[in-house]
Amino acid sequence: MTMNKMLQENARDGKKGKRARVLLADDHPAVAKELCALLQTEFDVIATVGDGEALLAAAHALAPDVIVTDIAMPALDGIAAASEILRRNPAARIVFVTIHDEAEMVKKSLAIARMKN
Fold first, then answer.
1. Could you list the residue range(s) of the whole structural domain that residue 98 is in?
2. Which residues neighbour 6 within 8 Å (Cβ) at sequence distance 6 or greater?
3. Is residue 24 within 8 Å of residue 39, measured between CB atoms?
4. What is the mean pLDDT of the chain?
5. What global pTM score does this model have?
6. Domain for residue 3, yes or no?
7. Interval 35-73: pLDDT, tens
8. 6 part of a folded domain
9. Which residues is 44 bridged to in the sheet?
10. Is residue 40 part of a domain?
11. What would the pLDDT profile of 91-103 be if each residue is shown by its tens digit?
12. Overall domain count for the chain
């Protein structure tokens, strides 16, 4: 499922007329700014954070509809943060974003997705 389709479906799930609330996590400010600009055309970006620890805190405090996170971030990477978020809230919706093409990162990301099912 594409990120846009997931976000649109989430916006329809019991939230008629409301835009999905998105929490964005990326440790590169320029990338975060560009992603935010792209997402804001269709969704409400409620916060942007720069590392996994901040992602955990923001996810707990803000209860976003969807989390869009970079995989590789300092302190706590996006994969570890997603794992913890899903442990706390199995209904959380998370989209991974990365520039890395390492097979191991893809495998770890998919393993997190299987946790949810």
1. 19-116
2. 66, 93, 95
3. yes
4. 85
5. 0.79
6. no
7. 999 999 999 999 999 999 999 999 999 999 999 999 989
8. no
9. 21
10. yes
11. 999 999 887 777 7
12. 1
Closest CA to 55 of 99, 100, 91, 24: 24
Judge whether 58 lies within some domain: yes
The CATH number assigned to the domain holding 78 equals: 3.40.50.2300
Burial class (CB in 10 A: 0-12, 13-18, 19+), 94: buried
Cα dist from 89 to 28, 49, 63, 98, 115, whole Å: 26, 19, 10, 23, 11
Token look-up 């996810």 returns: 59
Q: Look at 19-23, 31-35, 89-93, 103-107 and tell me which has the smallest mean pLDDT.
A: 103-107
Helix (H) or strand (E) holding 24: strand 21-25
* Count of C-beta atoms within a 10 Å radius of residue 78: 29
Per residue, the 3-state secondary structure of 67-104, as one string, reads EEEECCCCCCCHHHHHHHHHHHCCCCCEEEECCCCCHH
